[in-house]
Predict the 3D structure of the following.
Amino acid sequence: MPYNKNLQEALKKAYRYLSYRQRSKKEILGYLLQKGYEDNIIDEVICYLESIDLIDDSKFVEDWIYFRSQKGNGPKKLRYELKNKGVDEDLIEKKLSLLVNENQEYYSAKKLLEKKLNQNAYPENNSKLWYRLATYLKGRGYSNEVVNKLINEYKAGNDYL
């Protein structure tokens, strides 16, 4: 990479921005634009960072899905977050279909529901309880099908939960 003071400063800022966590290409682009760098400088920095694998949207999506799903986030929320990070929708769908299936979504939602129920925050057994639990799970990004299945199993008094 040829020496250019602005280029070196932009690269230094990008390194610092990447030091906190992995970023998407669009996040780096937006950050450098916000800092006032010219388009040609930004393009060079991004090309260089891609060439040394510091920017890789595919790896970013895989890591994001893995770590955020471990925190109890469902596919809908993951998709929304990744779109906001500027990741290509086709890449998001491809990685989600590879890394998250309906069975995993069901058991992840079940685990979250059990955790919520074990907090004893819902001592009563009424329609308000079902509504609150369903809203909570949907807010975490789980599909209506999975949420309804879990709530119906719980309502029926099955020993699934």
